[in-house]
């Protein structure tokens, strides 16, 4: 080996490094020169046979140092290149329009329930719940609807087991349950929102599953006039201060007298339109003075205690309030329709 040879090896190394574009090529080059059978490794072992070991050693060292320096330099260069490539690919273009994050919103029926609950709570009512799978006893018997009573038919009930267990057809059984707990001693002021079921064929205004909010007030001095006052507050809260109310005589076995409660049409203000079917009035609940038989059966002495009760259909209220004309909308899962509710925010 001589200087010339060394220079040619070094120039070869230089060219090879110049051609390296990727880190893995660099690794290959390393093993080509410094691996077990690498060019520099072999040169190194040739020292044994060299005549002038010192100058031979210096020459090998020169090659090795050149290789190592070039290696380090290339490695740094490639790493930097890689980093820049990465930064480039991860660059965020802040001028691009942002990705829209879909926002959920409360279920519209749930919103009506919560609104009604907080209104009644502000008037001193408690919110209670009752079971959806109910006994005939609470759903009918204790509400003055004995077996064979014709009014049972109107409730189209789903029976689950024989004639004793059923899906409640209204929220009124909670009245009976609460009165029995009161043991004829404590005044009662409750509202009970919840699901109810009837064997109806579903259409735009009927659903076999719907919601009601039941109300019951029992006290020593409670009259139909108190019911009227309470209903007035509810109606104005729901449909605005200019909402008028009226009672029409009706029949429910659990109240006497019984009434249908109407509000003046919020759309046409009484002049007549499709919403109020040209009557100027819209019925939104059934109500009445608690029947003495119900008080008696549920442990309250009708000579001492009086009360009123009411039952609102919650979908009906939501439909009127938010201009929804198909009750099935509440129970389907079409996000486009559900989203449309958001825009009905007041
Ligand atoms: N439970 C009745 C129904 O589902 C509604 C109702 C009417 C509830 C009068 C009452 C009431 O508490 O007093 O049709």
Q: What distinguishing features does this structure have?
A:
single chain, 346 residues, alpha+beta, BirA Bifunctional Protein, domain 2, 2 domains, seven-stranded mixed beta sheet, three-stranded antiparallel beta sheet, 11 helices, 41% helix, 20% strand, rod-shaped, binds 3,4-dihydroxyphenylalanine
Task: Please tell me about this protein's structure.
The structure is a single chain. The protein folds into 2 domains: 3-89; 108-341, 2-Layer Sandwich (BirA Bifunctional Protein, domain 2). A hairpin with a 2-residue loop joins strand 7 (245-252) and strand 8. Helices cover 41% and strands 20% of the residues. The protein is rod-shaped, with a radius of gyration of 43 Å. Helix 5 packs across helix 10 (314-322). The protein has 346 residues and is of the alpha+beta class. Residues 170, 172, 214, 252, 254-255, 286-288, 309-311 line the site of 3,4-dihydroxyphenylalanine.
Briefly note the CATH topology name of the largest domain: BirA Bifunctional Protein, domain 2
**How many DSSP-defined strands?**
10
Distance between the termini: 94 Å
Tally of separate helices:
11
Low-confidence residue ranges: none
Assign the structural class, choosing from mainly alpha, mainly beta, alpha/beta, alpha+beta, or little secondary structure. Answer: alpha+beta
Bound compounds, each kind once, are:
3,4-dihydroxyphenylalanine
Helix content: 40-55%
Strand order of the largest sheet: 1-5-6-10-9-8-7
Task: Return the average pLDDT rounded to an integer.
Answer: 92
CATH hierarchy class name of the largest domain: Alpha Beta
Instruction: Give the strand content.
Output: 15-25%
Largest beta-sheet details:
7 strands, mixed
Number of domains: 2
């Amino acid at each position: 080996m001589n200087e010339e040879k060394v220079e040619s090896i070094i120039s070869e190394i230089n060219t090879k490094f110049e051609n390296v574009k990727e880190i893995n090529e660099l690794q290959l080059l390393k093993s080509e020169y410094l691996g077990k059978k690498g060019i520099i490794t072999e040169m190194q072992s040739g020292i044994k046979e060299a005549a002038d070991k010192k100058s031979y050693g210096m020459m090998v060292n020169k090659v090795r140092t050149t290789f190592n320096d070039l290696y380090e330099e290339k490695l740094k260069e490639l790493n930097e290149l890689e980093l820049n490539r990465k930064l480039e690919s991860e660059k965020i273009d802040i001028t691009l329009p942002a990705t829209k994050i879909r926002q959920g919103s409360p279920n519209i029926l749930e919103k009506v329930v919560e609104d009604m609950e907080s209104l009644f709570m502000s008037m001193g009512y408690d919110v209670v719940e009752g079971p959806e799978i109910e006994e005939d006893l609470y759903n009918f018997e204790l509400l003055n609807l004995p077996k064979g009573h014709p009014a049972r038919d109107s409730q189209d009930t789903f029976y689950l087991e024989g004639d004793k267990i059923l899906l409640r057809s209204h929220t009124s059984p909670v009245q009976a349950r609460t009165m029995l707990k009161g043991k004829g001693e404590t005044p009662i002021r409750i509202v009970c929102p919840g699901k109810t079921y009837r064997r109806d064929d579903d259409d735009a205004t009927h659903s076999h599953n719907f919601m009601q909010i039941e109300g019951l007030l029992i006290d020593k001095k409670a009259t139909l006039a108190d019911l009227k006052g309470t209903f007035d507050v509810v109606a104005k809260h729901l449909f605005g201060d200019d909402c008028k109310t009226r009672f029409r005589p009706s029949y429910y076995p659990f109240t006497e007298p019984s009434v249908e409660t109407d509000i003046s049409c919020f759309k046409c203000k009484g002049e007549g339109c499709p919403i109020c079917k040209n009557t100027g009035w819209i019925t939104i609940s059934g109500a009445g003075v608690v029947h003495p038989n119900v008080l008696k059966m549920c442990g309250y002495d009708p000579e001492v205690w009086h009360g009123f009760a009411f039952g609102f259909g919650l979908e009906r209220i939501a439909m009127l309030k938010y201009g929804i004309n198909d009750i099935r909308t509440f129970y389907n899962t079409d996000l486009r329709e559900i989203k449309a509710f958001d825009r009905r925010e007041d």
